[in-house]
Amino acid sequence: MNKVNGFTTLTITLMLVSILVSVSVFIGKALVSEKRIALNEIEYRVAHAAAEQGIAEAMAWLKVDSTASGASGTVASSAAQASYSVTMTPNAITPGVIDILSVATLPGGGQTRISVQVAERSILNPNHSGPAAPMLVAGNLPTNGNITVVGNPNGGGPGVPVSVWSNKEVNMGGSAQTCSQQAYAAGCTTNNAYSYKDGSNTVKGPDIVENDAGFPGDLVDYLFGEPDTPEGWINVEKLATAIVDSCNDPLITGGAGLFIVEGTSDCTLSPMGSKSAPVMVVIKDSTLMINGNGSFYGLIFAYDSDSTDGNDYKIKLNGETKFYGSMISNYNEIELPSGNYDSIYDQEVMCNLSACNGSSGGGENPFVTLSTVPGSWKDW
Fold first, then answer.
1. What's the pLDDT tens digit per position in 225-274?
2. SS3 content of the chain, % helix, strand, coil (to 5)
3. Is 340 within 8 Å of 323 (Cβ atoms)?
4. Closest CA to 106 of 132, 128, 86, 80
5. pTM here?
6. Which domain holds residue 147?
7. Among 43, 234, 340, 367, which is least packed, fewest CB within 10 Å?
8. Which segments of the chain does DSSP mark as H helices, in order?
9. Sheet containing 315-317: which strands, arranged edge to edge?
10. Which of 351, 353, 306, 314 has its CA nearest to residue 333?
11. What pLDDT digit, counting tens, does each position of 90-112 carry?
12. Both 211 and 150 in a single domain?
């Protein structure tokens, strides 16, 4: 009887040991498999991060040099390492579009590929190709003194000139006049002007578009293609060459670009820029004064970020100033004191601001930015 009991005990013990060994083997295999899966996931993430870094590096290179064709590098972590190689090639079908392909490779031979298309565009809203008039204002515009406005010959469409575009009334006073570019070159007078004030006689031609129900309700969107919201304004700031707190900052006077002036109650600008290197200045929540005798080439946007806060910002002009480009404002009231002021729509200046002839090469043109073509991102 004891022999039978001993045999039974031994059999049961061997079965239990076999079961434990089988369970241990199974758990071991499961743990090894789990570890392999985790390692593969880590390697995939590192490879994907490397490919994304390649895309970012390629876009950075293209902003500096539009002729850049390749880049490479390595991304390493404590768990894995991946090298990436990027190619940038012009799209064979769509001019101005660049195809970027980033391939990240793991030491074991695994790869991750990411491709995207980017295109250059003007920092100005491409739907408008620049402002339609040399003076574009949301408030009342009293034109006093010796003020001459030279219109955009195609501001209202081919062959339809626009000198002033306003949401409210345009009051002609003093010796104010508007004329064509040809008339201005020959000497603008009441005989060849579009609109003029001559003594008690006031003539307003169709080039002055006032009290217009179609005036843009959002000038930030009209100019930059971004809504006048906190989020939209952040995107506008990303386009800026520099954001400064003084209109005397040497960055503004040092070269072409988009400059945003914030945090000053008074902004005084001197003549600056040139036809080939104009400046774009956004004056945020500040009275604007242009002083001195000389020429300003570019675009000024006098921007009131909150028209309901009771602040009454003004635009003041002193001295003999010739403004080549466009002045835009969403101020409720604009004060243009008596003085000699020529506001001239210059096609070459506006073309340089809107990059109408394309970029001369990435970062060489401060008015051009790179944008991802929607729907072109692929990471499979």
1. 999 999 999 999 988 989 999 888 888 877 788 999 998 888 888 888 89
2. 25, 35, 40
3. no
4. 80
5. 0.76
6. 135-355
7. 234
8. 2-64, 181-186, 219-224, 230-239, 250-253, 347-354
9. 266-269, 287-290, 315-317
10. 314
11. 998 888 789 999 999 988 788 88
12. yes
